[in-house]
């Protein structure tokens, strides 16, 4: 149930001629007791994999929506251990891969090796750390490899060609193509060169390329998916779940089928 | 001379550059510009010109004869960074980084500020060099430092009040980093303290080391020897690292970094990251950090807005673990007493930040000899704090909400 499951999920989608859709939810937002039910709902709605946010006090890569969700989760007493314990409960029956997105410090405080081991035990397939650039990967790669957790790397619009190459070569799980210069959160439009950028990434990446940050409408999903392997949607999902609007979430995920 | 950081920006196990990929190219561009500027005589000459003619350096190393007599211990010298233009050491760094901004062809700068000293120093050099300037400041600090907000606006800067978190320095840094991420193509982030991702800790140290370099020369002129001890306050640690760095290899010079003990270390309401924290990652570097067991960063507490920060520069963490510098804390109350002491004995009202260093002299004086020399970095003047100090004296010392 580790990174192989993530690879298999993307393979299934691409063999069906479809595009991937990875929704993001903040663990503990809406209560930890509802976490597994939310995961099942997203899987049943057609999510290819699910990005599970672990809240951090100082999320510098996140915009207002995810910041607010993180504050709600922390105020509800969410801890790393409690999330991993909760997720582990349905490990055996779960039919969708999970990827954790958090910042380095909660992982560091838990202990990198212990965290990787606990993730494997809970059936986590991958890890996204937006404040861990290539230069500092050494802190985590060994432990993640040992426990077969994919380190999912982010590539930015500002990344230079040599950095893009290095990131694409090391890509595992999926390559997270950040579609805006800025933090997470809804945007009306994207820069003109985005399509070309995504296509170039797809040509050289060793893993599927997913576009994320600012993706918030079925139109965005369709538009971006034509250039790469699918999308990650965060703020819009977090917001809709917070509002109790599950229909909107289901419709967004369904839009991948028309992409 | 100590040769830290390594090429990758590490100080032992501390330091590094833990930033989103979007910022990495700018971080590398800054590092390149900084290294080139060090080899460029024209840049160095420009720095010297502004530091002398605009900032007013060199600053005096003043023998505080009455303070010495009252404390009855070593001869106490004050390094008068409070006499710099804008009233604190902060401008040593902002003038350097503003010149680097121009060198990189950028026309906009963003900065965070706590007390407002770094914000004012950034707004000042932005006016001087014609840069567009936006300052992020926690809403609590906007309230308690209203005069500095107006000062920045008068200088032409845009001040943005940050509502997130407790609305203090940590939250202002978060927002400034988010703004920088979204505007990195044309904007430089003038980081105010010797923390943050590499190369900021090194850049800030190298622009602030003029404090220690001057002190070294001045004390030899005055006393014919190096001091027995040096004291500086530590929030993020820029004045302290600037003072300490040129003395790191002089093993006989004892060095003391004084953190904000707030309402007392046992209360948990303090900003003593080196004394009480453990290693963690915040704002781009690995360093001592106030955090809970789950790796969530805790809010700092100090009467001094400039020390009200849960992290600290990585070089201080390194110097602590190497045993080269002793870090300790003094409380809000002790700092307030020191304000009164220095005001009445020397006619110098120190900033609340710097008052922490002055307060520590009272602890050191009894254990040092009369022939010894003690240098204190008086990092800023207290004009900005007069209201806070008055309120505190009226309410009996306690200013926490």
TrEMBL record, chain A:
InterPro entries documented for this protein: Aldolase_TIM, RibuloseP-bd_barrel, Trp_synthase_alpha_AS, Trp_synthase_suA
Domain of life: Bacteria
EC number(s) given by UniProt: 4.2.1.20
Gene3D superfamilies given in the database record: Aldolase class I
Keyword Calcium among UniProt keywords: no
Cellular component, GO annotation: cytosol
Record field: catalytic activity: (1S,2R)-1-C-(indol-3-yl)glycerol 3-phosphate + L-serine = D-glyceraldehyde 3-phosphate + L-tryptophan + H2O
Pathways involved: Amino-acid biosynthesis; L-tryptophan biosynthesis; L-tryptophan from chorismate: step 5/5
Enzyme class: lyase
List of catalytic residues: 51 (proton acceptor), 62 (proton acceptor)
Keyword annotations: Amino-acid biosynthesis, Aromatic amino acid biosynthesis, Lyase, Tryptophan biosynthesis
GO molecular function: tryptophan synthase activity
Annotated function: The alpha subunit is responsible for the aldol cleavage of indoleglycerol phosphate to indole and glyceraldehyde 3-phosphate.
Oligomer status and interactors: Tetramer of two alpha and two beta chains.
Family, per entry: Belongs to the TrpA family.
Protein name: Tryptophan synthase alpha chain
Automatic annotation (TrEMBL), chain B:
Domain Tryptophan synthase beta chain-like PALP: 56-380
Pathway(s) it belongs to: Amino-acid biosynthesis; L-tryptophan biosynthesis; L-tryptophan from chorismate: step 5/5
Domain of life: Bacteria
Secretion signal span: none
CDD domains: Trp-synth_B (cd06446)
InterPro entries, per the entry: Trp_synth_b_CS, Trp_synth_beta, Trp_synth_beta/beta-like, TrpB-like_PALP, TrpB-like_PALP_sf
Subunit record text: Tetramer of two alpha and two beta chains.
Protein family per UniProt: Belongs to the TrpB family.
The protein's name in its UniProt record: Tryptophan synthase beta chain
Organism: Terribacillus saccharophilus
Name of the coding gene: trpB
């Amino acid at each position: 149930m580790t990174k192989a499951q993530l690879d298999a999920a993307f393979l299934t989608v691409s063999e069906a001629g479809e595009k991937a859709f990875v929704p993001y939810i903040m663990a503990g937002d809406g209560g930890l007791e509802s976490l597994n039910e939310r995961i099942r709902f997203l899987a049943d709605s057609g999510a290819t994999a699910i990005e599970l946010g672990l809240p951090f006090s100082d999320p510098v890569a996140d915009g207002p929506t995810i910041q607010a969700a993180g504050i709600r989760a922390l105020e509800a007493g969410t801890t790393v251990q409690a999330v991993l314990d909760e997720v582990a409960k349905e490990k055996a029956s779960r039919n969708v891969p999970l990827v954790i997105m958090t910042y380095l410090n909660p992982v560091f405080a838990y202990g990198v090796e212990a965290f990787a081991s606990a993730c494997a035990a809970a059936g986590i397939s991958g890890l996204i750390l937006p404040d861990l650039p290539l230069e500092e990967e050494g802190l985590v790669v060994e432990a993640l490899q040992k426990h077969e957790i994919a380190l999912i790397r982010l590539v930015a619009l500002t990344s230079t060609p040599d950095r893009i190459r290095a990131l694409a070569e090391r890509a595992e799980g999926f390559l997270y193509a950040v579609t805006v210069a800025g933090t997470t959160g809804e945007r009306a439009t994207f820069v003109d060169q985005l399509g070309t950028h995504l296509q170039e990434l797809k040509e050289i990446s060793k893993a599927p390329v997913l576009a994320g940050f600012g993706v918030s409408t079925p139109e965005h999903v369709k538009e971006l998916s034509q250039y790469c392997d699918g999308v990650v949607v965060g703020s819009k999902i977090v917001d809709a779940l917070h509002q109790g609007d599950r229909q909107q979430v289901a419709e967004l995920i369904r839009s991948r089928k028309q992409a | 001379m100590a040769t830290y950081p390594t090429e990758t920006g590490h100080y032992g196990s501390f330091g590094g550059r833990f930033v989103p990929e979007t910022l990495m190219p700018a971080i590398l561009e800054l590092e390149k510009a900084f290294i080139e500027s060090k080899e460029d005589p024209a840049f160095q000459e420009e720095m010297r010109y502004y530091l002398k003619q605009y900032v007013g350096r060199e600053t005096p190393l003043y023998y505080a004869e009455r303070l010495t007599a009252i404390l009855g211990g070593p001869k106490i010298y004050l390094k008068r960074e409070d006499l710099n233009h804008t009233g604190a050491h902060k401008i040593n760094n902002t003038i350097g980084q503003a010149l680097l901004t121009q060198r990189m062809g950028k026309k906009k700068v963003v900065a965070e500020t706590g007390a407002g000293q770094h914000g004012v120093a950034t707004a000042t050099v932005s006016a001087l060099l014609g840069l567009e300037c936006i300052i992020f400041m926690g809403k609590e600090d906007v309230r308690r430092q209203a005069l500095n907000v107006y000062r920045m606006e008068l200088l032409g800067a845009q001040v943005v009040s940050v509502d997130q978190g407790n609305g203090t320095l940590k939250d202002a840094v978060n927002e400034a980093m988010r703004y920088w991420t979204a505007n990195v193509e044309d904007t430089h982030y003038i980081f105010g303290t010797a923390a943050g991702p590499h190369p900021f800790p090194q850049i800030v140290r190298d622009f602030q080391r003029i404090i220690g370099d001057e002190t070294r020369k001045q004390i030899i002129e005055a006393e014919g020897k190096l001091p027995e001890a040096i004291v500086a306050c530590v929030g993020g640690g820029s004045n302290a690292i600037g003072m300490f760095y040129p003395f790191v290899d002089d093993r006989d010079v004892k060095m003391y970094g004084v953190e904000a003990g707030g309402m007392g270390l046992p209360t948990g309401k303090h900003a003593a990251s080196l004394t009480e924290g453990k290693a963690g990652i915040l704002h781009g570097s690995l360093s001592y950090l106030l955090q809970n067991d789950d790796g969530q960063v805790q809010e700092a507490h100090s009467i001094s807005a400039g020390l009200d920060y849960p992290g600290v520069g990585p070089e201080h963490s390194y110097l602590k673990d190497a045993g080269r510098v002793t870090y300790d804390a003094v409380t809000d109350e002790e700092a307030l007493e020191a304000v009164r002491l220095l005001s009445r004995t020397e006619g110098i009202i120190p900033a609340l930040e710097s008052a922490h260093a002055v307060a520590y002299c009272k602890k050191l004086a009894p254990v040092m000899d009369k022939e010894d020399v003690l240098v204190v970095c008086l990092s800023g003047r207290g004009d900005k704090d007069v209201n806070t100090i008055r309120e505190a004296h009226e309410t009996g010392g306690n200013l926490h909400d």
